[in-house]
């Protein structure tokens, strides 16, 4: 039997002195209230009501049990309230610093429809892991190689000046013998300052004979975009970022560079829940494919 439902029916009927009014107060049909009270009596081993009269009179045993039943109902209600508050407690999550406010707001709205309340901490890759290890967040979107990732984002080059159709060949950035050609650089934003991206790009730079300074890591995404907007330099970025900054975007010709992300969490269930419920929304925030 459901002990709480039985106690609730018992309390309502006893306080209103009527099975009809008591069942209405409990929001159930009278036969249901009668069955629950009968089940409670059977569980406790004694009659709670004297059914020889029209009104619902408590038996001596019923009077003894009523305070306990009230306590049981209050505790159950308090537990329901505590559970609701716990479900609404924000789940702090570290996210890439480049995620836009609009995308994060939409992700938050999607989470709320799944009874999840998210609180975002934008941060660079290394800082996101630190926040998780120090328990400042409960979950983090961590940067990983593409073959370990749940979400991937293809990278290319963004430019404020016109680019030719098709993929960009980095060898075209090579400075001529005369040195009269302006030195164009490729800027790596902090999100991509990772071995599986940065090292592959610098090795390609060296193999093509570009100057070391022609592939550089920017101090921030803002400074990288500023360099590109004011010159013919190129930004290593996703197509979604290029659209945000009103840059032309082309893929790289010589290599394929990809961001990879997964969810790390203090509690494994949190990671699985976020992946399962919010996969498309997280993909949109990252600028990746919205379909698994």
Automatic annotation (TrEMBL):
Gene3D superfamilies: Winged helix-like DNA-binding domain superfamily/Winged helix DNA-binding domain
Keyword tRNA processing: no
InterPro entries recorded: LysR_HTH_N, WH-like_DNA-bd_sf, WH_DNA-bd_sf
Cross-referenced Pfam families: HTH_1
Single annotated GO MF: DNA-binding transcription factor activity
Keywords, alphabetical: DNA-binding, Transcription, Transcription regulation
Residue ranges of every copy of the HTH lysR-type domain listed in the record: 1-59
Keyword Transcription regulation: yes
Family from the record: Belongs to the LysR transcriptional regulatory family.
Name of this chain's protein: DNA-binding transcriptional regulator, LysR family
Species whose genome carries this gene: Actinopolyspora saharensis
Lineage: Bacteria, Bacillati, Actinomycetota, Actinomycetes, Actinopolysporales
